[in-house]
Amino acid sequence: MARAAAPARHWASIATAPGRTTRAAREGSTTVALHREPPASALARGPAKSSDIQRIRRELRGAELCEARRLQAAAARHRRQARGAEQTLAAPR
């Protein structure tokens, strides 16, 4: 007897709530997808408009500035720690 093809499943039906298992896990499958990103076409709502692109560029610029500031602060902290370690090692005993 021919086996019927499995129906296509929507990407959202694969994700499970915390504490729940997937059907594959319940059926004893050894590979379980813990997380799956939706395809890009599932997120798109038509072609990108210039306002969408400008908004994303603004958001990225802001994120880049924030990350740059965070890295500068971390570098300054590391310099202070290194200076303190040098002074500790150079102190007469």
Please give the number of β-strands. Answer: 0
Give the overall silhouette: elongated
Strand content: under 5%
Overall pLDDT metric = 74
- Summarize the main sheet: none
- Derived from helix and strand composition plus strand pairing, the structural class reads mainly alpha
State the helix count.
Answer: 3
Uncertain runs are 10-15
Helical content (DSSP H or I, runs of 4+):
40-55%
Task: Note down, in words, how this protein is organized.
By secondary structure, this protein is an all-alpha fold. The chain has a domain at 50-93. Helix content is 53%, strand content 0%. The protein is built from three helices and no strands. It is elongated. It starts with 22 loop residues before the first helix and ends with a helix. The relative contact order is 0.06. Mean pLDDT is 74; it is low at 10-15.
